[in-house]
Amino acid sequence: MPGAPPLLECRNVAKFYGALAAVDGVDLAINRGETVGIGGPNGAGKTTFFDLISGLTKVSSGAVLYQGEDITGRAPYLLFHDGMARTFQVTSGFGGLTVLQNMLAAVIYGGGRTKPGLLIGRRDRERAMASLESFGLAGLAEKRVSDITVLARKKLMVATAVVHEPKILLLDEPVGGLLPTEVDEFIDLMRKLRDRGISIVFIEHVMRFLTAVADRALIMHQGKLIYDGAPRGLAKDAQVRSVYLGSEADSLEMPA
Ligand SMILES: Nc1ncnc2c1ncn2[C@@H]1O[C@H](COP(=O)(O)OP(=O)(O)OP(=O)(O)O)[C@@H](O)[C@H]1O
Known about the structure:
Blueprint: E1 8-17, E2 20-30, E3 35-39, H1 46-53, E4 61-66, E5 69-70, H2 76-81, E6 84-86, H3 99-109, H4 122-134, H5 150-162, E7 168-172, H6 180-195, E8 199-203, H7 207-213, E9 216-221, E10 224-229, H8 238-245
Parallel strand pairs: 3-8, 3-9, 6-7, 7-8
Antiparallel strand pairs: 1-2, 1-4, 4-5, 9-10
The structure holds adenosine-5'-triphosphate (ATP).
Protein name: ATP-binding cassette domain-containing protein
Keywords: ATP-binding, Nucleotide-binding
Organism: Taklimakanibacter albus
């Protein structure tokens, strides 16, 4: 839409813990349809940045806008109801509940119903099962989440996050700890979500995943953005090489 505001905008966003600037004056605009990968060394401020956007942590200064509206400090569940979904670095879910119950929780409580009833309707169940099916998880529906594999748990977290067709999906290290073949599965999964029209912003250290999925890369260092551009430029950027990639830069597979 010409003239439409960016989907997500950060204006001089900062977070201080005492004297430490975890996020130090980040300016950023993300447009609809973009897939953005964020990298950077440990402690660079990536997760804190997600926490500021998604309302989990209060900003020290600056503003976050979503679809042109100031949402700084808005509660995460309200943002979810408005189409901003997020997953976390620690893939937890409700371990004592089944896969289906986890999905039902997302269907029922994530949909913006202020007073969900106690009874689970047939439609909720059908919707939950259809969503599990589309992620290849239907066969695990009655398994407890604490008993399924890390890959299945990671898929479930994404599946619950997108069940209400968010406009933007924030993923914190979606493939951390996965085997190379499992990373490949996630690359396909991300492409499918992108094709559904969901804008994706993800934090990831696995550069093979970042360069395969993202059309734009951001690198953070000491709370600041030090790179914002095409993934294929990462390996050649002197500062990115020096503070983050090191010799890995020489073996990075870049998209054609
Ligand atoms: N609640 C907190 N209190 C004090 N310092 C914090 C807090 N949360 C984060 N920090 C500090 O802020 C800095 C940024 O942390 P953050 O977790 O955002 O980094 P990161 O880039 O996500 O790192 P990683 O790649 O290891 O997940 C770190 O120095 C961290 O120790």
